[in-house]
Specification:
Order of helices and strands: HHHHHHH
Largest sheet: none
Helix content: 55-70%
Strand content: under 5%
């Protein structure tokens, strides 16, 4: 994360501070600090997430952990609502998941959840083509959610 980058650059030698005239800085990054964000996480745009939270890595880490703990089962919850014929609940779950994912820059997940929400809004009763399209959108949402949640197990 940013802390690791700062530690790397702070450890570089000053110009003219060369032992034997040919010292080069190490290109190996230091180990992440405890509680620091990893450089990358599957399905998460870390730099954009940090930008949205004004560089607050601790806050982003906390929000990501909440996403992992609170949203992991939302694909199943959405499918269950659809099986029960509760389109309003399914729409609400998709909308909420899209917002949470967007806030932490889980861009694929946010797009998949929005696609499901839009599919639910456009679906007319008995429209089998829309039903197949919605099923494909749900599969994409499941894949995107699994990518993010599995990646957040590192935190």
């Amino acid at each position: 994360g940013l802390a690791a980058a700062a530690a790397f650059f702070l450890a570089l030698p000053e110009p003219g501070d060369r032992a034997g005239g040919t010292q080069t800085p190490s290109t190996q990054w230091p180990e992440p600090l405890p509680g620091a964000l990893p450089e990358t996480l599957p399905g998460i745009d870390i730099p954009t997430g940090l930008e949205r939270l004004q560089g607050d890595g601790a806050l982003l880490r906390s929000v990501l952990q909440e996403l992992r703990d609170g949203q992991a089962g939302k694909g199943a919850e959405l499918r269950q609502a659809l099986e029960l014929g509760d389109t309003a609940q399914a729409r609400f779950v998709a909308h909420t998941l899209a917002g949470v994912a967007g806030n932490v820059s889980a861009l694929r997940l946010a797009a998949a959840a929005l696609a499901v929400e839009h599919g639910l809004n456009a679906q007319a009763p008995g429209d089998t083509d829309a039903g197949r399209a919605l099923a494909a959108r749900l599969d994409e949402l499941d894949a995107a959610l699994a990518e993010v949640v599995d990646g957040l197990d590192e935190l």
